[in-house]
Amino acid sequence: MRPVVHLDNVTKRYPNVTALENVSLEIPPGVVCALLGANGAGKTTAIRILLGLEQVDSGTASVLGIDSSTGGLEIRSRVGYVAERPTLYDWMTVEEIGWFAAGFYPLGYAETYNRYIRRFGLDARKRIRELSKGMRAKVALSLSLAHSPDLLILDEPTSGLDALVRREFLESMVDVAAEGRSVLLSSHQVAEVERVADMVAILLGGKLVCVERLEELKRTTREVVVTLPDATTPPPSMPGQVLAHVPFAHEHVWMVRDLDEARLAEVCRDAGPYTVRSPGLEDILLALLREYRSPAGAARSRLDERVESTPVTPPQ
Question: Do residue 59 and residue 204 come from a single domain?
Answer without folding.
Answer: yes
